[in-house]
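pasting for the record
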Amino acid sequence: MPDPSKSNLRGVVLALLAFALFSSHDVIVKTLGGHYAPFQIVFFSVLFGFPLATLMLMRDPSSGNLRPVHPWWTALRTGATVVTASSGFYAFSTLPLAQVYAILFAAPLLITILSIPILGERVGLHRWFAVAVGLTGVLVVLRPGVESLQPGHIAAIVAAVGAAVASVIVRKIGRDERSVVMLLYPMVANFVAMGMVLPFVYEPLPAEHLGALAVMSTLAFAAMLFLIAAYRRANAAVIAPMQYSQILWAALFGAWLFGETPDRFTAIGTAIIILSGVYIVFRESRASVSANQPVLRTRSRAATPATPRVAGVLRRMERSQSELETGGKEG
């Protein structure tokens, strides 16, 4: 019988590796953001992501067409993903890495709030208190009235809201929708929307920048695969908080590559946000506290344009394959 502690340890290591790759992906976004508009970066990120998505969809055992079962929810999720992609890439391009991560870490707090009207989740006093504390941490990072809010700050907030909306909708409709629908609609929408803007912002790409975009898409894809492997080996409550390791990479990469040093308020606010997020995960992991576990079951990472919510999509593919195999044996 396998040792649960060893399995959890392997899961933690894989999750830490996944988020290190995600952080490397974001470094490339920030580097290219100094040369190109976020719309152009998103466009080529999706373009290079299509072959990777095709490889994944070849594993989809389900049959049917590409019409969504829940068209309005699918449309809202797709729109949220498009907004998240462009605003998130812009935030990484203009703000210090640590500040962007601090604001994006507020997504679990927003997921908790959105789960009430969308999932019918009942949120008790403990989680409401954690949300209030976490949002206070966001205010500590932003310091409105003391420091002027930059467009990048607004973009990061919009990205956090968009990621939370997309995550909760995945939780609501994920059991009904085909994996191919969940994966392709956001990718195609990003490709079309960014392609419409591209002629107005396009800058020629040298070979090294095209290569960086290809590496960026590959990093996102590899990170998702490592994250899936982590969730297979350890409990979600163990893996979910590992996302906060990105703040360490932000501090390292920021200082090393961009000359960034997080100020005291960013550090304090980030610590508050992380503690509140971890507490929400802890509360959801307890029996009889959360009916839907909206944060635990959707929380991996804000979707990247090339691989939007690939972890959830691939888990659903594996579940469908298992059901087919079980059905074949029973027949």
